[in-house]
Amino acid sequence: MAEQENRIELDGINWRSAMPVLRLFSAFRMAIQPGRLLLSLMLVLLLYLGGVAMDFAWGPNVYPKEVQAYAQKDAPGFDAWLATMRSQDDAIDATSSLIEKDYIFNTLLDQQVGAFERLVVSATSLNFGLSDLASGRGADSGGVIGAIASMVIRIPGWLYATHPGFMVVYLLYTFALTSLIGGAICRVAAVDACRGEHISAFAGLRFGLDYWVQIMIAPLIPLGIVVVIRLALAVSGWVLFNFPGTDVVGAILFGLMLLAGFIAAMLLIGFAFGVNLLIPAIAIEATDAFDVVSRAFNYVVGRPWRYLFYTAVMIVYGAVTYMLIGLVVFSTIWITKNSLSAGAVSEVVEGTTRLDAIMPDPMWGKLLPNADWDNLDGLGTVAAALVMVWLKLLIAVLPAFAVSYYFNAQTWVYLLLRRSADLVEFDEVYLEPDPDDDAAVQDKVEPFGGAGASGGGDVKPAQASEPTESTES
């Protein structure tokens, strides 16, 4: 008699447990939560208004096609091009034409938006630009890598080369705001991701204020060490390679100098890849800046392939969802305009209604149309300006979503890397003690031990998961 086969009936698979990377896909749901979206919108508006105010203070200073000239020419060539433009500008009284210069922030915004749109298009088509990078094109690479290189290297490089004062002021302003509001968004996201609980945007801002200094210090630690190493090498170069005989000593000690350069290079690489994890680390662990720098560096170096894979998934999924939100915004504007046009028939000129002059039809890729100011009277101009304000607020939802998604997704990337490297479960997150909790009160009364020394039962301190050294990828 044949043995009876053993059969296993499978009721279902918990895919989020079997494939933890799927948790990244919850970043979209988390990003569109009203509280986080409101915080992101506040950050976007404050950055925009700050840039506009600085444009007003600095005035128009950017020559036509200045950024393109910076990208296409080497440093001496760009300096010569800039000198030519300035000489033409100085001789403007002797000519009948004027060089129309643009504002710095307006140019910066246009360039960054264009690079971000290239990033979205490249990510949705799965064009990462790896072949260009491997061929040695570097910042000139296409695809996702080229777009990111433009956003973080080329465009800031142009700003530093031509308008360093503007860059320093706006960078400090952006750094301070992003540290505060980004910390708030990550805190709300951390509690949601780890415990499934929703805390208010106000509670997130309170956490951001409490840890504001630590958030701002964290990225400065590796950069500060690199600066110290560079200064030490510069002094060594002056002492050992400027005088006869000392260069022999410098050659003997050159191995130590290479070691210092290696440490600086590793710190910069770790910073470039791990800086995105610093704010989520503080939001989850509620610890100091030195600890989160150690964690971020350890996770990136110890799990490089996981980190790159999670980042690639995050970028592609974010690009797809960004286009979805863009479709919603475009449809909202188009349906509103199309419905209003059915009843607005009064014409300002033949073939152009008053509504068309105030608000032309939107186009995909150009959500904010330009009003026909020339054919509008005084009240029509006021109406068009007010309509533009409402449209800009609606369109601001797009960058607000991008900001919210970035911080929510990076929170999940940190949790995934922490679980892989330190075997810490996803629900481990620091929770502030409830002041009404008897255990928390007892903790304050008995700080040196006893039953109250462990705090509230639902409090998971940041020190519960110490990073471990690992090179497994």
What would you note in describing this structure?
The protein has 473 residues and is mostly helical. Among the domains are: 211-302; 320-401; 431-473, no CATH class. 67% of the residues lie in helices and 2% in strands. The protein has 21 helices and four strands. The protein has helices at residues 15-18, 27-31, 34-58, 66-72, 75-90, 104-124, 130-134, 143-162, 164-195, 201-210, 212-217, 220-240, 246-252, 254-274, 278-285, 289-302, 304-341, 354-358, 378-395, 397-422, 438-445, and strands at residues 60-62, 102-103, 347-349, 352-353. The protein has a two-stranded antiparallel sheet with strand order 1-2. β3 (347-349) and β4 form a beta hairpin. α3 packs antiparallel against α9 (164-195) and α17 runs antiparallel to α20. The model is unreliable at 438-473 (pLDDT under 50).
Describe the structure using short key phrases:
473 residues; mainly alpha; two-stranded antiparallel sheet; disordered C terminus
**Number of H/I helices:** 21
The SSE order reads HHHEHHEHHHHHHHHHHHHEEHHHH
C-alpha geometry: globular
Q: What are the segments in which pLDDT stays under 50 over at least 5 consecutive residues? A: 438-473
Mean pLDDT: 83
Residues in helix, % = 55-70%
User: Helix- and strand-based class?
Assistant: mainly alpha
In total, the number of strands is 4
Q: What gyration radius follows from the Cα positions, in whole Å?
A: 27 Å
Ends apart, CA distance between termini: 50 Å
Strand arrangement across the biggest beta sheet:
1-2
What portion of the residues fall into strands of 2 or more residues?
A: under 5%
- Summarize the main sheet: 2 strands, antiparallel
